[in-house]
């Protein structure tokens, strides 16, 4: 008994070699094709057609049969992250902000405004977590949004405090009872008229209220007078 060591190898060629093949594969012969991309494809000879005229055996599988076999509809990779396609996921399993509508994340936190990206998006507010300053995209650069001024009362007459600093807003003016020019800042408006002669029953021009202070004698207009009036 003679033992022969042999190796069975299926008929195989590269894609380029099969294109130039002029022999017709024998019926039932598996013919392998090695592509330039490293894939292996197969055709079965029928005894009549050249290799390049035969269909690949995978061509017999319909899309429905493939979906049934894998249990789901595969996503076309060319449609991931593009218009009319499907959203992709980043390393954290979330949809990237670039694929979300603007209103979903109107406020974007960045670790330093320099890390916000070369170009920003309109209608978004960027918060620098290092400085707590806010910015908007002007179309060419990130522009800081001015913080609201905090206005409080000041102990100094004529001043207010803005962000804790006294700021002069007007020059204090001493009112003058004798000022008759109603355009003057020292003019006292709506001051009551005083009768030339005052008594317990005399009335002034302020709502015709009787002077409540009892006067024993008439006084001169040049005298100082403190009235306890109900206005």
Written description of the protein model:
It is a single chain. The chain is mainly β and 231 residues long. Helices cover 6% and strands 18% of the residues. It contains two helices and ten strands, in the order βαββαβββββββ. The protein has helices at 15-20, 63-70; strands at residues 11-14, 30-34, 40-44, 107-110, 125-128, 133-137, 142-144, 151-153, 159-162, 165-168. The chain has a four-stranded mixed sheet, with no helix packed on it. The longest helix has 8 residues, at 63-70. The N and C termini lie far apart (141 Å). The model is unreliable at 204-219 (pLDDT under 50).
What is shown here, in short?
With 231 residues, this protein is mainly beta. Helix content is 6%, strand content 18%. The chain is built from two helices and ten strands.
Largest sheet: 4 strands, mixed
User: What class would the helix/strand composition place it in?
Assistant: mainly beta
- What strand order characterises the main sheet? 4-5-6-7
C-alpha termini separation: 141 Å
* Coarse shape: rod-shaped
Mean pLDDT value: 77
Strand content: 15-25%
Number of strands: 10
List the helices and strands and how they pair.
Blueprint: E1 11-14, H1 15-20, E2 30-34, E3 40-44, H2 63-70, E4 107-110, E5 125-128, E6 133-137, E7 142-144, E8 151-153, E9 159-162, E10 165-168
Parallel strand pairs: 1-2, 4-5
Antiparallel strand pairs: 2-3, 5-6, 6-7, 8-9, 9-10
